[in-house]
C-alpha cells in the first residue's frame, strides 16, 4: 500500500491511548492527523509523540499533524477513526465533515471507523448519511477493555461492516487492540456491545445482591465466591470484579472502588441498550428496575467502579 494518511478524532480517556498506540504501531511512513475539541489533549499528544520521536529518531519519524476541525482530518485521511462520548456528538462530528460538500477524492476509498459506544439507530443513521454521499465506508467498532486495555493495546473490538472489508478493518483495529471480530453488517458492532453490556448491567446488580444477602446470612464471602465460580451462577462480576471488599485483593472493591468501568458508564450503556430495544420492539423486563438502581448508585457514588452497587446496598438495607 502507498504511503497514506490516517486520522483520529476524539482524544478522551480511551481515545487518547488508542491514538498513541496507533501512531506507535502503524507503518512509519504513514502520517496521523489528530483532532479534539480539547486543545490541551492535542498538545499533550504532540508532546508525547515528540518525546517518542526524540528517542527513536533514527528509526521512526512518527509523522503526525494537528487539525483545526473534523473536516480537515477527513479531507486528508484514507482511514479515519473516531472515539466519541455520545450519539449526539458522533452525529455532530460526521455532520460537520459533510456540511461543506463532497470530500476530495483520494487514491484509495475512505474507511470511517467509529469506535464510540452509541445506540444502533444513531449508528445506522450516520452510516446511511455517509453511504448517500459515496465518500467512503462507515464501520461501527466499539470496544471492550476500558482505559486499562486502551493503554496496554489489548482492547477487544466488535465491528459491523460488509464482508469484503473484514480484513482491512481487522488490520486497522489490531493496531490498537488484541482482537477484532466482525459481527455482521454495519450496526452489528454496537448491537453486540450493548447486548453484552446489558448482561453485565444485570449480572453486576445480581452479584452484589447475592453477596450482600450472603453476608447478612453470615456466610464466608470468599468461600462462596469460589463456589460460584464453579457453579451455575458463575459470571464476570464474581470471576473478575468481585463487589465485596477483601474477597479479591486485585478487584476495585478492595481498592476503594477505584474504577475499572465506572457506574456512570454502565448506566449510560444500559440506557443505550434500552433505546435500541425500544426502537426494535424488544422487551427488557428487568431494564427499568436496573436503571432505577444505577441512577441511585450514580447519585451516591459517581465516578466509582460499577461494583460499588454492593456498598450502596449495604447503606440502604
UniProtKB/TrEMBL annotation:
Keywords recorded for this protein, A-Z: Branched-chain amino acid catabolism, NAD, Oxidoreductase
Cellular component aspect of the GO annotation: mitochondrion
An example Gene Ontology biological process: L-valine catabolic process
tRNA processing among keywords: no
The enzyme's E.C. designation: 1.1.1.31
Biochemical pathway: Amino-acid degradation; L-valine degradation
Originating organism: Fusarium oxysporum (Fusarium vascular wilt)
Molecular-function annotations in GO: 3-hydroxyisobutyrate dehydrogenase activity; NAD binding; NADP binding
Domain (6-phosphogluconate dehydrogenase NADP-binding): residue spans on this chain: 7-181
Catalytic activity: 3-hydroxy-2-methylpropanoate + NAD(+) = 2-methyl-3-oxopropanoate + NADH + H(+)
Name of the molecule in the record: 3-hydroxyisobutyrate dehydrogenase
TM stretches of this protein: none
InterPro entries in alphabetical order: 6-PGluconate_DH-like_C_sf, 6PGD_dom2, 6PGDH_NADP-bd, HIBADH-like_NADP-bd, HIBADH-related, NAD(P)-bd_dom_sf
Keyword NAD: yes
Protein family (similarity comment): Belongs to the HIBADH-related family. 3-hydroxyisobutyrate dehydrogenase subfamily.
Domain of life: Eukaryota
3-hydroxyisobutyrate dehydrogenase-like NAD-binding domain location: 187-312
Catalytic residues in the record: 193
